[in-house]
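Sharing a chain and its predicted structure for anyone who wants a worked example. Both blocks are below, sequence first, tokens second.
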Amino acid sequence: MDQQFWPTPECEKKRYLEHNNDIYDTGYQNFLKPIVEKILQNQTIGDKGLDFGAGPGPVVQYLLKQNGHSISLYDPYFHPYQELLKETYDYIVLTEVVEHFHSPKKEFQVLSSMLQPKGRLYILTHPYDDSINFEKWYYKNDQTHTFFYTKKSFVWIKETYGFQNLMIENRMIILEK
């Protein structure tokens, strides 16, 4: 999205508060369960994780905690703990976050630098491809979605930021250092 159309921080926060943020909502939990299950498969209880862009209802943290995992929360509006961005992690989770980046190159550089060797980014977004009719695509209608990704975009991110592996499974993307 052209910068002139970016929402103000106040509009962004207001929009995020309109989302379903109830951690006890089973529909919301089921939506995020595939990425949580992937984390449970790949990460140990002792691994250090960060939910980047956790929002006001951190369901990922809630679901992981039920399985003995601990994860820190960062969100510029709801969990603005800047000190967490100076640490390194075994994994970082970004559920419905990357499409909100105003400067994806900068954001992925920061995220990559925060990962330990063999660390993973777990991303949930809706990649665009030619089978999608952009005019009718629901994902473009959220005024806070400023950037869309294709599979080719994720290959570029992998190569540019030194990731060794890339897995794309529908809406779930995993990048591994």
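Comments welcome. The chain is about 30% helix and 20% strand.
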